[in-house]
């Protein structure tokens, strides 16, 4: 019972009727009756107090047929106490934040430990012919990828009208659309291509 004795109950009509009968039925005082009359919140009653008053009424025959305790509890709504967050020590809070930052940095370093800067390669070492060939092959693949991307952009622009159901578009309009889209992709991809090539050449 100790785990629920601190809970409070809202005064339901059944409980109110039961409590109003007690002072009229018994003039003498008791600890339970005094606590009942002196409680701070009149619309609430603790489970422990309600149980004490109910047992007192049965023991002293204050009511001929007192309602069973389960019926009183069933009619009431439980009011849980407000959760009080403990105040943390500022020094402990500071240490916790420092540890969180430390572990976040360690996790970031672990995730990025196997990564290399864009355009760089661990195989590109000065003086090794095989490694230089690998770097050249990688640059060739970048150029080939650049050509394929620009060509794909032109193809998409040329056939975009047909894809969206406009089959009556003139060929000249298709060409203009394809070249316009390819030109945008060309300059965007050219920037990254030159940047990667420059970084790769600085390592060789």
TrEMBL record:
PANTHER family per record: TRANSMEMBRANE PROTEIN 199 (PTHR31394:SF1)
Major localisation: endoplasmic reticulum
UniProt topology in membrane: Multi-pass membrane protein
Origin superkingdom: Eukaryota
Residues annotated as transmembrane: 143-164, 176-194
Protein name: Transmembrane protein 199
Keyword line: Endoplasmic reticulum, Membrane, Transmembrane, Transmembrane helix
Any one GO CC term of the record: endoplasmic reticulum membrane
InterPro entries for this protein: ATPase_Vma12
Subcellular location: Endoplasmic reticulum membrane
Keyword Endoplasmic reticulum: yes
């Amino acid at each position: 019972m100790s785990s629920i004795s601190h809970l409070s109950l809202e005064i339901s009509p059944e409980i109110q009727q039961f409590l109003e009968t007690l002072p009229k039925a018994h003039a003498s005082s008791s600890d339970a009756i005094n606590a009942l009359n002196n409680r701070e919140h009149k619309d609430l009653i603790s489970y422990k107090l309600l149980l004490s008053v109910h047992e007192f009424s049965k023991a002293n025959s204050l009511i001929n047929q007192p309602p069973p305790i389960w019926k009183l509890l069933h009619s009431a709504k439980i009011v849980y106490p407000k959760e009080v967050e403990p105040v943390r020590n500022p020094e402990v809070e500071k240490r916790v934040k420092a540890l969180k930052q430390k572990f976040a940095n360690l996790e970031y370093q672990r995730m990025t430990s196997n990564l290399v800067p864009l355009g760089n390669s661990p195989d590109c070492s000065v003086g090794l012919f095989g490694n230089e060939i690998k770097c050249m092959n990688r640059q060739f693949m970048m150029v080939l990828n650049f050509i394929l991307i620009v060509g794909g952009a032109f193809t998409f622009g040329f056939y975009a009208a047909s894809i969206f159901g406009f089959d009556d578009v003139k060929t000249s309009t298709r060409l203009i659309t394809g070249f316009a889209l390819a030109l945008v992709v060309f300059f965007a991809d050219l920037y990254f291509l030159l940047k990667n090539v420059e970084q790769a050449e600085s390592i060789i």
